[in-house]
Specification:
By secondary structure, this protein is of the alpha/beta class. The chain is built from 20 helices and 12 strands. A hairpin with a 2-residue loop joins strand 6 and strand 7. The longest helix has 54 residues. The chain is elongated. The two termini are 54 Å apart.
């Protein structure tokens, strides 16, 4: 897990390494402080009780400004005591100031590295998601990908900062303090050999139990976020059906599920503090009892016990910190696993090796089978054989779920075939680079998507270098120019998020204009005029012919009137091609086409025409 986290620090290695070095220096200086204090206390005890066990003493004679070594067994004078207190007092101040400085610098560098880590992870996730096929996105779900890019990245960032600071500091403090404790008093240091493994055992048991609980909690987070996203996108539908109370209750249930998951995990986590406290205070009590007896027997000095108490606190606090880190890392491990599940996913669709670009725009389907689940027993399209010549206009009709959209999404490789092949200009689409293939294909999807910004900014997605004349010509062909110019700001009208300021029919026409600006060799309109009236639909089709005469055009439509002028029409039925022919041929030979046509004619006669959205 740590290795995975460190991958995200690319470009911030200097800050990360310096943080580790500064933390080690800070910790070493903190460990030195009890040693200096014990020397002062031992010297004071020797001055007041010359008969106690003495140690060799090194101090600075401030009057002569020279280092003096005093052998054990000699008397401590007031001058020696004063020089010792001043010497070691100054050293303590210097160590404390340096430790504080190193700690402050380490915190600043860790914050910088953590922010960089977060930036790298989000950028890597976003780039990876951009490479995903529709199947990859379907696998994770949009809500889950949003959660991973926000909440999970934040959790991973906290873990990374903890690793370069606390994860280094706690073990270093443990090791340094243990070394100093054994040097100072081996007879008392054995207490730590009992307390530390006991604390480690508690930590390990809790970490094992807590990890799966946090993993379940994050799944519930995904579900809750999916509900929020769905509700916000469909807020107009919710209000239209007066379902606010139902949505609020559903959201309350999901937040309660998250709360229960958190509570279940926290119940285990709260056990850590009392268990660790019992072990820690038990060790301190043992140290006081045994150390006090040693002082009474003259085996050690008071300063030595004071130092051992400090080291005991440092060691046990280090172990407590390691326990806390372990729990936090366990919590974050689920997030880190989820992040790398995305980052290590191989996209279903990868670039081909050819540098060929789309030329004339001819299309051929050869024995194509397709399944969203890649299951031979659950085919969405079966044994599709279809040839579309360059420059032809082809209509596709069929019932809901018959595979119309699935068929055309195989052309720009939003999905790949299960069996067979799709050829563009005689070359399998899998041999093209995705960029070259999709540059030659414009597709207006069923769900029309506009972005925050102005009408002009949205149109320039088709061609960022398009001139005003080219923009207007595309909009005129899509029957969008007139309603755009009716707005006070014209092409600079702000659309709001998702194009909330325009109607469904206007949104469709803007999307068609945007696709035309791309000047594609192949244009695919996936039921993209369903929200306009038949007269406007006819004008759009005529505009398409005028602006791109050599463009291969595929029109998916529910209305027969939208495709009756096509060079040929494909009738799909349950994922198979039922018939191919012109409007007249299909009226004569295809019962499915006849039925749809007659029902629409009857409905149009009864309703007296259609109204623009």
């Amino acid at each position: 897990m740590i290795k995975k986290l460190l991958k995200g620090a690319k470009g911030y290695e200097k800050q990360s390494v310096l943080t580790v070095i500064l933390v080690l220096l800070e910790t070493a200086l903190e460990v030195v402080l009890p040693l200096l204090m014990s020397t002062i206390l031992n010297t004071m005890q020797l001055y007041s009780q010359p008969e106690v066990l003495a140690e060799r003493l090194i101090y600075l004679d401030w009057s002569a400004f020279k280092i003096v070594t005093l052998d054990s067994g000699l008397d401590i004078t007031s001058s020696i005591l004063t020089n010792t207190v001043i010497t070691y007092g100054v050293l303590m101040i210097v160590c404390a100031v340096l430790s504080l400085t190193f700690g402050t610098l380490a915190g600043k560098l860790a914050a910088s590295a953590g922010a960089g880590f977060s930036k790298n992870m989000r950028a890597a996730l976003f780039a990876k998601i951009q490479d995903f096929s529709f199947a990859n996105v379907d696998k994770f779900s949009t809500a889950s990908l949003v959660t991973r890019s926000t909440t999970d990245v934040n959790n991973a960032q906290q873990s990374f900062m903890m690793i370069i600071r606390t994860v280094i500091r706690a073990p270093a403090m443990l090791v340094f303090s243990a070394i100093m404790a054994f040097i100072k008093s081996p007879d008392l240091a054995w207490i730590f050999l009992v307390a530390v493994p006991l604390l480690g055992l508690v930590m390990g048991l809790l970490a094992t139990k807590v990890h799966p609980l946090f993993k379940q909690m994050l799944k519930k987070y995904d579900k809750m976020n999916a509900n929020v996203q769905e509700d916000l996108v469909a807020i107009r539908v919710v209000k239209a059906f007066v379902r606010e109370d139902y949505e609020e209750e559903r959201y309350r249930e999901q937040t309660e599920a998250v709360r229960q998951s958190q509570l279940k995990a926290e119940k285990l986590m709260v056990l850590m503090n009392p268990l660790v406290s019992v072990i820690m205070y038990g060790a301190i009590i043992a140290l006081l009892v045994i150390g006090g007896a040693d002082i009474a027997r003259g085996k050690i000095q008071a300063g030595t016990l004071s130092a051992m108490m400090s080291y005991c606190t440092q060691i046990l606090m280090s172990v407590m910190m390691i326990c806390f880190i372990a729990v936090q890392l366990v919590m974050s491990r689920a997030s880190i696993d989820r992040l790398y599940e995305v980052l290590e996913t191989t996209p279903d669709i990868v670039d081909g090796n050819s540098d060929k670009t789309v030329g004339s725009g001819s299309i051929e389907f050869k024995n194509v089978d397709f399944s969203y689940s890649n299951n031979e027993e659950n085919l969405t399209l079966e044994k599709i054989n279809l040839e579309i010549k360059a420059g032809e206009t082809v209509g596709i009709v069929g019932g809901t779920g018959d595979g119309k959209s699935s068929l055309v999404q195989l052309i720009p490789r939003f999905y790949d075939v299960l069996n067979g092949e799709v050829l563009v200009d005689g070359t399998d689409v899998r041999e093209y680079s995705l960029y070259n293939l999709r540059e030659g294909v414009s597709m207006v999807l069923q769900k029309n998507v506009l972005f925050s910004g102005t009408i002009r900014e949205n149109l320039l997605w088709g061609d960022k270098n398009a001139t005003q004349e080219e923009i207007e010509n595309a909009c005129k062909a899509a029957c969008a120019h007139d309603f755009i110019t009716s707005f006070p700001d014209g092409y600079d009208t702000d659309l709001g998020q998702g194009g909330v300021n325009v109607s469904g029919g206007q949104k469709q026409r803007l999307c068609i204009a945007r696709a035309l600006l791309k000047k594609p060799k192949i244009m695919i309109l996936d039921d993209s005029t369903s929200a306009v009236d038949t007269a406007t639909d006819a004008k759009i089709r005529q505009g398409l012919k005028d602006i791109a005469k050599d463009m291969t055009t595929i029109i998916i439509a529910q209305r027969i009137s939208s495709v009756e002028g096509c060079d040929k029409i494909v009738v799909l039925d349950d994922g198979k091609i039922n018939a191919v022919g012109t409007h007249k041929q299909l009226l004569k030979n295809c019962s499915i086409y006849q039925e749809v046509y007659n029902s629409q004619q009857k409905a149009a006669a009864e309703q007296g025409g259609e109204v623009d959205a």
